[in-house]
Known about the structure:
By secondary structure, this protein is α/β, with parallel strands linked by helices. It has helices at about 15-25, 45-50, 50-60, 95-105, 120-130, 140-145, 150-155, 170-180, 190-195, 200-210, 245-255, 255-265, 265-290, 300-320; strands at about 5-10, 30, 65-70, 110-115, 185-190, 230, 290. It is globular, with a radius of gyration of 20 Å.
Amino acid sequence: MKDTLDFVVIGAMKAGTTSLFEHLRRHPQLHLPASKEDPFFSHPAAYARGWDAYIERSFFRADPALKWGTVTGQYMVGGLWNELNSAGDANFCDERTVPLRIRERVPDARLIAILRDPVERARSYHRMALLNRWDDRPFEQAIDELLQPEALEDSRRHPRQTTGYVTWGEYGRILAGYFDVFPREQMLVTFTDELEQDPTRLLRRVYEFVGVRTDFVSDSIGVRYRVGATEQRVRLLGFQSPLNPWRIQRALAGNAVAKQLWHALPARGRRRIDRVVARAAYEIDLWNRRAGADPVDVDRVTLERLRAHYAPDTHRLAALLGTDPPWQR
């Protein structure tokens, strides 16, 4: 069985990774896991289970003749995801930790980043946090708290869902870790603007970079995924989504009879069910998100503070890339 990845889309989150995933998974020469979010290198629990377990679960029965890859936005948070030990102390890791892990396991993999205006990314992530009930702070309050020096340092050292609105947009800092570890020819940095304005052209670049046919045109071109969701179609008993198969699966996992029946199934059958659940959960999540007007007008002063915060990092990013990013132009 093949035991390596040919490419990894490393993020950033809320920058178009879902759309990129949907386009790439339709290419006949590529294979991606059923679910977009399938992290290994950034998540301590998955990493502890080992590479063989990850490959067996995520690429079970995948054709080894295809190019294998993942789209995982959590690889662009600048460290390990919510890394806390049993005592509650954080194990420090820097921007090179995840790149070094990737290089150790898949040294020849092609890495693809997609970046969005960091201010717009922060707003989009905050909307998602409200939608999923990860956070209930107004945007201005969240940004004011996260721009404090102590909060910035904590967020960089200990990436967590409710602390990443600001620091996950520091692309220059985060990508510097990748450029320190990987040769430049293994890195492709793209932008959300390119994906929105000319997706066919951008995908040709990605296909060429990965090493597959560039003349393939996906039937997903023109479709935008998870755009501007500000509410959900269905809520019940306070749950994020009552139709989410993951919730049903987790509930059954706590039932002794269901657990006994589950372990009585052959390993192949359990993996097949896991893939079906992952795909169904993803499709239902897409359906359940409903777009609408931004319910809150964001204070201009807050946006200007964010823009000022990102200015030095944007210059650092431009120096890495040899060109200004679109939001700087």
